[in-house]
């Protein structure tokens, strides 16, 4: 018995995963620690085009939500906002490590770490 190959005009589709890089955000902190006894703040600077929505969520090392900061970039280039080491109800947070989850227009995301000292 001989086998005859079957030839069809239907192409075989093979999915090929592609790695789409998340666009990088240019983010600079003027310091990575805050001494609340000296009433220091951290300035968060982001290089973006005007009109971009910036969302910053701050969490403690334990994962507790601390505060949310939002703003819209006013100009092309560097824009900044400050965090005064206060939580959502206006009280100064305790000493420790905090994480800033920074998202621009829901596309790019970056995490920065801040130390609070007293």
Question: How is the topology of this model organized?
Answer:
Layout: E1 26-29, E2 33-35, E3 42-48, E4 53-60, E5 65-72, E6 77-83, E7 96-104, E8 108-117
Parallel strand pairs: 2-8
Antiparallel strand pairs: 1-3, 3-6, 4-5, 4-7, 7-8
Give the CATH topology of the domain at 40-117: Immunoglobulin-like
Along the chain, the helix and strand elements come as EEEEEEEE
Pick out the low-confidence regions.
Answer: none
Q: What's the CATH first level of the domain at 40-117?
A: Mainly Beta
The general outline is elongated
Distance between the termini: 87 Å
Please give the largest β-sheet.
5 strands, mixed
Radius of gyration: 23 Å
Provide the residue-averaged pLDDT: 86
Spatially, the strands of the biggest sheet line up as 2-8-7-4-5
How much strand?
over 45%
Can you count the beta strands?
8
What share of residues is helical? Answer: under 10%
- Tally the helices: what do you get? 0
Written description of the protein model:
The chain is mostly beta strands and 118 residues long. It has a domain of 78 residues: Immunoglobulin-like. Helix content is 0%, strand content 47%. The protein has a five-stranded mixed sheet, with no helix packed on it. It is elongated and about 90 Å long.
Brief sketch in words of this structure:
With 118 residues, this protein is mainly β.
Main traits of this protein?
118 residues; mainly beta; Immunoglobulin-like
